[in-house]
Amino acid sequence: MFRLAVAQAPAALQTPEDRLEWLHGVMPEVAGGGADLVLLPELFVCGYNIGDAVRDRAEPLAGPTSRKIAELARQHGVAIHYGFAEQADGHLFNAATCVSPEGRHLVHQRKLAIPPGPERQYFQQGSGCELFEYHGLRIATLICYDAEFPETGRAVAGKGAELLLVPTALGARWAWVATTLIPARAYENGIFLAYANSAGTENGMEFLGQSFIAAPDGIELARAGNEVEILFADIDRARVSAAQSRLPYLRDRIALGELQ
């Protein structure tokens, strides 16, 4: 059994140092809850609604913040999946990675579709989505807007993903996305899905909260409100195969052929 934690973090943390200090403070709770992996929100390390400051706070994949988070992962024996602004080859990317307790980067994912709004001023589009395996579980990452397309969830499920991790920065006016649209990605593909948002207000932007963990059969295992909270759920791989056998969408879609 795989134990997952989702950390709905406070949006109002003003600096990367404040964010790391908060993470340091909650890791004993995460580890004490028996988590194998904790999922943090989109751009957790630098903040989301920070304007031009994102350029100064961007780092390479294996930058100094990565090393500090790796040390936290080692101390507590928990893999930490977090969002950050990546600086690479003269460009900025909205990225996510997962650091194991051994200090390895288990995945490196860049946001595939940049939504309308401020992000387009700063971030380049990423490409591709690779799965990683941790404690025997096949895991994929999609960042916020990417998971709102049915094609992306279907693509990673088709590759064999059993758990989809979605760090997000969803604003308060988009409640339907968190309560209806994204949970459907779990059910229609027969996989587990975890959605990690921020809570509160950052530089005038109000975040929805409503982080959750959904099972492959449409059951919500955990759901946050609009306050800072840590969620836990057990991920049982047998529920994936059972759901996909009961409703074989991934197989039967082939019979639809090419729809015009």
Structure write-up:
The chain is α/β, with parallel strands linked by helices and 260 residues long. The chain has helices at 16-32, 53-57, 64-76, 119-122, 150-158, 175-189, 237-246, 249-252, and strands at 2-10, 37-39, 79-88, 91-99, 105-110, 132-134, 137-141, 163-167, 192-196, 198-202, 205-208, 212-214, 220-223, 229-235. Helix 1 runs parallel beside helix 3. The longest helix is centred in the N-terminal third of the chain and has 17 residues, at 16-32. It is globular and about 50 Å long. The mean pLDDT is 97.
Brief summary of the model shown:
It contains 8 helices and 14 strands.
Q: What is the topological layout?
A:
Elements: E1 2-10, H1 16-32, E2 37-39, H2 53-57, H3 64-76, E3 79-88, E4 91-99, E5 105-110, H4 119-122, E6 132-134, E7 137-141, H5 150-158, E8 163-167, H6 175-189, E9 192-196, E10 198-202, E11 205-208, E12 212-214, E13 220-223, E14 229-235, H7 237-246, H8 249-252
Parallel strand pairs: 1-2, 1-10, 2-3, 7-8, 8-9
Antiparallel strand pairs: 1-14, 3-4, 4-5, 6-7, 9-12, 10-11, 12-13
Helix pairs in contact: 1-3, 5-6
